[in-house]
Amino acid sequence: MPFETGTANGHGDLMRRLRRFLRGQGTLGTPAYTGTGNGALRYLAASPAVVTETWTLTCTAAATNSGTFSVVGSVSGAKASATVGTAYDNGLISFRIDDGSTDFIVGDVWTIAVTQGALAAGRVVSFAGTGTGTLTPAAVYPGYQFEAWTIKCTAAATNSGTFSVVGSISGAQANATVGAHYDNGKLKFTLNDGATDFAVNDTFTLTSPIWDPLRWVPVAPLAGQPYLASSQDSTGTTPALAFDGIITGAVGWRTFSGQATPSWIQCHFDDAVEITDFRIRAWSTNPNRAPKDFTLQYSDDGLAWTTYYTVTGATAWGANESRTYTVSPTAEQKHAWWRINITANNGDATYTEINEIELRDTAAGPNLAISSQIPELIVKGPGAAGVDQVFVGLQRYALSTADWFNWRACAFIGYVSGNVFASQPGASPARGLPLWDQSIPYWFVANGRRFAVVAKVSTVYEALYGGLVLPYATPAQYPYPVMIGATLGTDSSTRWSDASAGHSAYTYSPGTLALRNVVGSWLSPDLHPTAPGASVGLYNYRPAPGDSYPLLPIELEDSGPNRYGYLDGVFFTPGYSAAVEDVVQVGGVDYLMVENVFRTGVRDFWALKLA
Fold it and tell me: Each residue of 247-270: pLDDT tens digit?
């Protein structure tokens, strides 16, 4: 079932979890380690191709500051070995084993439980034919999970047979044989013989609801005052200028006159991040003002600082020279505050200067500290058949001093990698989702057409819908019925505790949804039967005997009057005898009872289909 519930650690972690869920990535248990070496297992991730199994990493060859580990999945079997200090990726799991102060010895071992992603497990395998065999486990490698596959019997045989394998995007691939494991580097499965042999033209069809993350920027400097320093010389030498990405000319940060050292300059991120690579660039003039003795430090509150990496004797800087420093911590260190703390420069008694600072979580990764960066996620859905294109984008925006941490949500008609968020093709009006930077229980549901989010912030329930609605028209008549909906009608700086009428979801929606109509324009639809003026009789709906709750489709209309379609998996339901977060069954399917943000009246409940 493409459904997940859990608890996120703030608005940034919620977006990371949504990305992982939508792309079908597996979830990882906490690695268990037994051994002598005290190195670290880092950057552990599961791909959309994983199945539920346990991975075992065992040291098979010890070496000074190195070593070799076997990599074995309880289902996938033995894979290529991993080397200490080298990034590892076998298409199913990825990680890096880092050396510690005590070397690994033969027999040191990690075990990691992996659970297949809900959307990956939600792949649909349909069959038409006479044979009674099966196709398992239908796993797809990253980068190839967004198409439909047709697997058709071309030659029948007793307890065997040959099948063609054709992707809707990849085209014809090598044939598959019944009873033999198949892997073309894109798709892998096994055709299992049954009591009745396969016949020619027996066909398996594999489709996937997994969404493709087109752009992912996980962290950025926090809005407000992300850049601070011990002092600055003028408005033309602020600390922000050392993080603007401009590396030419005499532009950057300079201390106030006579306060060269000790001095510091810091960046406050919107979410915790680990820095393993940082770079400092000197100005084009006066290299004697460049740092000589300094440390990279981190903090969790901006007050107490811990030294992470130390540099001494950094002398003889050239004009605009950039120097890179690599950190290899033995344990993951994710923190929101990072700073360069300078105790000595290269001899200038008046100023310390830095042209540019770059902070990265990997050597090949982007500069996370650059001031123009905004955390965002843009995804492409495959549609119901696995060959459509549905574009939805999310951005994080926040102001910690005002205690609001929100998401901006838009729908698009396409994607251009070089375009900024607001300039994506056919961008919808932005809608807002108020969140916070504390614990957030959540519920995610998705299919290939749309995804929906419920996020509990304190005692209120925020809601998001992104993707296609179910239209009252054929695809030719209504080719792209996409909608974006949240609980704010704009990307405003509204806090989650706002109790105005404009902070609402589904049961009353004054402009919180944006629907693309048949001619390609965006409109803010009315809702039937829940919107004011269309809600006559809603107070009279009650659960049927046996507490069977009626589910009324939430239809989208305008004052035309035109009725365009209805929401996929979102329903009005009466609030009599209902409690928020109840799960009720209708027709054997689970539905989550949700209140309209903070409202608890009998007409303020709606139901989310958990499938």
Answer: 876 689 999 999 999 999 999 988
